[in-house]
Amino acid sequence: MSVAVPLSLSLPPSTETVAIALDERGYDILIGPGLLDAPASWQGLPKAAAALIVTNETVAPLYLDRVRAQLAAHYGRVDKVLLPDGEQHKDWNSLNAIVDRLLATASDRKTVLVALGGGVIGDMTGFAAAIYMRGVPFVQVPTTLLAQVDSSVGGKTAINHPLGKNMLGAFYQPARVIADLDTLDTLPPRELAAGLAEIIKYGPIADADFLAWIEANLDALLARDKAALAHAVKRSCEIKAWVVGQDEREQGLRAILNFGHTFGHAIETGLGYGEWLHGEAVGCGMVMASDLSVRLGLMPADFLPRMRRLIERAGLPVVGPRLGVERYLELMRVDKKSEGGEIRFVLIEGLGKAGMRGAPDALVAQVLDAHTA
Ligand SMILES: NC(=O)c1ccc[n+]([C@@H]2O[C@H](COP(=O)([O-])OP(=O)(O)OC[C@H]3O[C@@H](n4cnc5c(N)ncnc54)[C@H](O)[C@@H]3O)[C@@H](O)[C@H]2O)c1
Ligand SMILES: [Zn+2]
Q: Domain 3-dehydroquinate synthase C-terminal: where (predicted)?
């Protein structure tokens, strides 16, 4: 019989918890400073003989030893896999490297995988956990803002294919998410901005007050103020959890989380992975999708400059690469959201409300013309 661990008794007092309710697969997201070194963060995880930390060359020197030390209190063996850094390595080779290590160490089906890093590490580790022996438990330790507010929540895992982003993957939930805000102190400014893009997206799609809060607190967020970050990460996780809770397998509602992503994915794929950061492409994509919402008459004209100004203040690009309208359309038709060749866009239909719609190519062409150079 398992005994509930009184997590809240010894977690740092400023810790926020977001509970993801998914029946027996529900889990907690812990958010706050000081979590990596707090033993309570690591209590009550699935029992096993071994844990395997998956991380990369950049994150390992910063945080690996501390995570390993905490895990050593619970697992007889703590192994690691060090992957090359970068979106271009979110591929079969990296996935194989994880599975190779699991098999080489004769890891059993209880082995706990620990994803230590950004969304790339989280997505790959989650996918490896989903398929190794038909599923082993995994823990997310997101160390980028983007991973803390988005990719570590909701159970989507994936790797890329040269012909399309995240084309291979599985829905698979972590046992816990440990989002230590102190890890954001080492994040390069470009990566911080990329995470802000995903935070900004939650405003227009779900919460007009949150959009106004972000506008008022953007400078504090850019200065990595812990209280501001705690609120932004918590609210973002709550909104994502609320959406995912109603539509875990992306039948409908969950797609609104992809505001700005149809244009954004086209930019990422069109330029080749690794040129623009995911969050940068999403930032620019949100400008385009905001404009399309206005041009379709769903939003008043002042919505576009409002979004563009916020995205620009966050340090994100607001002008896309001039790939050509035909190329954009072609790239967007391959997008997973397209149905029978019709491109489906997430559009804003009132502040805090989003929906999926098609749009005439001619109108999309006008948008691309206005926001690429
Ligand atoms: N599963 C989902 O629902 C979901 C949602 C959104 C995005 N994603 C995926 O997430 C990925 C993007 O994630 P990302 O933006 O975290 O990118 P990333 O994982 O590539 O991390 C960005 C960079 O920051 C480095 N880094 C990580 N933590 C650091 C730290 N604390 N200090 C210094 N450097 C650090 C990384 O090594 C990398 O170089 C994409 O592949 C995207 O498809 C998935
Ligand atoms: Zn995204």
A: 195-338
pLDDT of residue 246: 83
Segment 208-211 long-range contacts (CB within 8 Å, at least 24 positions apart): 208/351, 208/352, 209/352, 210/235, 210/239, 211/310, 211/351, 211/352
Q: Which atom of ligand 1 is nearest to the CA of 165?
A: 43
For 366, counting Cβ atoms within 10 Å of its Cβ (0-12 exposed, 13-18 middle, 19+ buried), the class is middle
pTM, 2 dp: 0.94
Residue 277 CA: nearest ligand 1 atom is 15
- Say which of 16, 56, 68, 156 is annotated catalytic: 156
- Closest residue to atom 44 of ligand 1, CA basis: 151
Where does the pLDDT of residue 335 fall: very low under 50, low under 70, confident under 90, or very high at 90 and above?
Answer: low
Q: Which CATH architecture has domain 7-185?
A: 3-Layer(aba) Sandwich (3.40)
- The pair of three-digit structure tokens given for residue 355, joined into one six-digit string: 């929906």
The annotation status of 215 as a binding-site residue, yes or no, is: no
CA of 20 to the centre of ligand 1 (A): 21
Least confident of 129-133, 193-197, 212-216, 254-258: 254-258
